[in-house]
Specification:
Number of domains: 2
Distance between the termini: 55 Å
Order of helices and strands: HEEHEEHEHEEHHEHEHEEHEHHH
CATH topology of the largest domain: Rossmann fold
Bound molecules: adenosine-5'-diphosphate
Length: about 375
């Protein structure tokens, strides 16, 4: 039983002085969302976005001040950028108490202001873990949708490894005419924006969570997306709090879960399904990536990962199985070169698979639209 209280925490933080303002961070109203669970403490320090890169010493000092209190087992302080007007509230970090699941925030906290109002449908491409080919799938599906004559955007929200620009052969930074609204990057007929343009690569992970939330908002609000039929969102891998919050921040019409055939990945895929359920986002289906190996020399197929697992699992869970994509060096080489296979080899078997899945997704979205017409109130 720890005797530490919120008052003790604020008392300790009141001894930490903001170096630029010369006052303590409690009096300045910078402390937000103090959480305390069985000696584990978490809180956010709200700062001006421009100052964030220089405030790591302040953040550490605040953590140390609280750590020194008797009964405190761990402290997590994160810097959070000031809320922009009309933005959804940035969720405060959770105090880490082992064995306690974080409560799922309902969808009730959806942002009030329409985000990217010209976008008809947002779909998430998600995976239970990294390295399963989520971004490769997102990019090829986006290009597959574009080949149907649709207007498509890709929003790269993968904090851990934003790779969409590289896969689309995009380099440089997005342009802005007025310093406020960014122009999306363009490649192969689709528009693209990446969290990698807004959150510098060397940003320590502890800052990323809160920065990412405001970067995500910025990518939806402050980018000149124009009219789009579908925005494909490349989610960060995994099913933790960051992913859950993101799934909540974007008005998703549906999600696609990418999985490899290994059982462990399937378990993760199941977690993905549960996560989207929590936030009421329908899962449009599973895609099995690296499903089987096709020898580049003899064309022979070998099922190195007990192929077919995702299909079986999808059936079991009552989720549509959208298709399988083999492990083929051509898929990697083409996206490494910035021209994904749907563009580089449009007649190939693999490009056809991606287009078939894209067609099915568009069918499902169209059906949704017919079932629930969008009512716009002026
Ligand atoms: P994730 O987004 O899940 O982390 P990526 O899409 O970045 O995964 O893929 C990880 C690596 O695997 C990349 O080098 C990519 O080119 C490669 N890759 C993805 N799918 C395939 C595939 N079907 N065949 C061959 N290589 C693939």
């Amino acid at each position: 039983m720890s005797g530490v209280s919120e008052k003790d925490i604020l008392g300790a933080l009141a001894r930490v002085i903001d170096p630029d303002k010369g006052k303590d961070i409690v009096a300045l109203g910078m402390i937000q969302g103090v959480q305390l669970r069985e000696g584990h403490v978490a809180f956010a320090i709200e700062v001006d976005r421009a100052r964030a890169p220089n405030l790591e010493p302040l953040r550490r000092q605040a953590e140390k001040a609280v750590e020194a209190l008797p009964g405190v087992l761990s402290v997590t302080a994160v810097l959070t950028a000031e809320k922009a007007q009309g933005a959804a509230p940035v969720r405060a970090p959770q105090a880490a108490a082992p064995g306690h699941a974080h409560p799922a925030p309902g969808r009730g906290q959806a942002p009030q202001k329409p985000l990217a109002p010209g976008v008809k449908f947002f779909i998430a491409v998600a995976s239970g873990k990294g390295g399963v080919g989520k971004s490769t799938t997102a990019v090829n599906l986006a290009l597959g949708l574009e080949s149907l004559g649709l207007k498509i955007g890709v929003l790269d929200a993968d904090i851990y490894g934003p790779s969409v620009p590289r896969m689309l052969g995009i380099s440089g930074k997005p342009a802005t005419a007025d310093g406020k609204i960014l122009e999306p990057m363009r490649a192969h007929g689709i528009k693209c924006m990446s969290i990698g343009f807004l959150v510098p690569e060397d940003t320590p992970m502890i800052w990323r969570g809160p920065m990412v939330m405001s970067a995500l908002q910025q990518m939806l609000r402050d980018v000149n997306w124009g009219e789009l039929d579908v925005m494909v969102v490349d989610m960060p891998p995994g099913t933790g709090d960051a992913q859950l919050t993101m799934a909540q921040q974007v008005p998703l019409a549906g999600a696609v879960i990418v999985s490899t055939p290994q059982d462990i990945a399937l378990l993760d895929a199941r977690r993905g399904l549960a996560m989207f359920k929590k936030v009421d986002v329908p899962v449009l289906g599973f895609i099995e990536n690296m499903s089987y190996f096709k020898c580049p020399h003899c064309g022979e197929r070998s099922d190195i990962f007990s192929h077919g697992g995702a299909h079986l699992e999808a059936d079991k869970l009552g989720v549509e199985f959208l298709g399988e994509v083999p492990l083929d060096i051509a898929i990697r080489e083409t996206s490494d070169a910035g021209t994904p296979i749907v563009i580089a080899q449009p007649q190939s078997e693999h490009a056809q698979v991606y287009r078939r899945i894209a067609t099915r997704i568009w069918e499902m979205l169209g059906a949704k639209q017919r079932a629930a017409p969008k009512i716009v109130v002026e």
